[in-house]
Every structure is written in C-alpha cells, then in structure tokens.
Amino acid sequence: MTQSPTPAEAWRVYEESDCIHAAEAVDAALNRMAEALTDRLRDLNPLAICVLHGGLVTAGRLIPRLNFPLQQDYLHATRYGDRTSGGELSWLARPVSSLKGRHVLLLDDIHDEGTTLDAIVRYCREAGAADVVTAALTNKIHDRKQGRSVDISGLDVPDRYVFGCGMDYMGYLRNLPGIHALKNG
C-alpha cells in the first residue's frame, strides 16, 4: 500500500502542478451541465445519486443549479481509495432509496476508463431504475475507455493524473476550485 503524503507534501504537489482548468472554467462547465440536465430531467422526478468521494464536490456545486424538484441519495463504489491507480471495484455503500421505476441521475467527478461507471449503471438497472443518466464534471481523453460513455460531461482533461474539484491526490486536494495535473503525470 502506498503511504499517504503529509499535508505539506500534498501542498507542494499542488504548487508544482499545471492548472488545466481554472475555477471560472469549472463554473461555466457546471452551468452548461445544469442547463442540459434541466432540459433532460425537469419533468421526470429524478433521483440524483452522488458517487462518493469524488462526486461530492460535483454534486454539491451542480445540484443547486438544477431548476426542478429532485431527491438525493449517494453511493460509494471505488477502485482507487487514496491510491493513484485503480484496482478491483469495492462497494462501500449502496443507495438507501428505492431505484425501482426511478429516473436516476448519477453524479461523479471524472469519467476515466468507465469500469466503475459501468458497474454502477448495471447496479441501478438491476435495482429497477427506469433510466440512468450519467454526468461527470470531467472526461479524460484517451483510448482506454471501456463500456458506455458518460451522458453529460463538463470539461475534457488530458490523459494525466488530475486533481481538484472532487478529484484527489492521494486523499488530499479535492477542495481545489480548479482542476490541476501533476507536473510530470
């Protein structure tokens, strides 16, 4: 297992990082996402499900921009934990709400390879969801995607290790208002 950095080490990584999208670009992307989601879901009584941990910031910033009634829940399925590379999918918490007959909106921070997204969508469908719409703040650009694409994304990011806006660097830096990438990664 990789040892977590100290807060000072994490801050040094931030200071040496490349800013990929400034806070203003993130806000504009969230506004575009909210408009698209409002057009698609406003009359469907959706259940918005935050995918923890990364989706917490996206959900917290996006849900207030959605101009329609909805209900909220969360789930926690991860392949990363505090690591910088993915492993086997681990379910830590499933939604409490019934998904039967519901239009589900999954909110996450990043669509990378799609393995976790596929498993979560499959779970929602098996639980009886009428439809599943996926939204991620970022979409990583590379040719390793597996399964479905995210339905709505806000910003493309390069095939580098990115953090901020819910995405972490070894458990830290999710709280950054912009999106950054490791200097050499």
Structure description:
The chain is α/β, with parallel strands linked by helices. The chain has a single domain, classed as Rossmann fold, CATH 3.40.50. The chain has helices at residues 7-16, 23-41, 55-62, 115-126, and strands spanning 18-21, 47-52, 71-78, 90-93, 103-111, 131-140, 152-157, 162-163, 179-181. The mean pLDDT is 93. Helix content is 26%, strand content 28%. Strands 4-3-2-5-6-7 form a six-stranded mixed sheet. It starts with 6 loop residues before the first helix and ends with a strand.
Task: Report the count of strand segments.
Answer: 9
The tally of structural domains comes to 1
- Our measurement of the CA-to-CA distance between the termini, rounded to an integer number of angstroms, reads 20 Å
Given this structure, which CATH class is correct?
Alpha Beta
Spatial strand order of the main sheet: 4-3-2-5-6-7
What is the helix/strand order?
HEHEHEEEHEEEE
Mean pLDDT across residues: 93
Number of helices: 4
Helix content: 25-40%
Share in β-strands? 25-35%
Unreliable runs, pLDDT <50, ≥5 residues? none
**CATH-derived topology:** Rossmann fold
Q: Give the C-alpha Rg.
A: 16 Å
Describe the biggest sheet? 6 strands, mixed
* Shape summary: globular
CATH architecture: 3-Layer(aba) Sandwich
- Class by alpha and beta content: alpha/beta
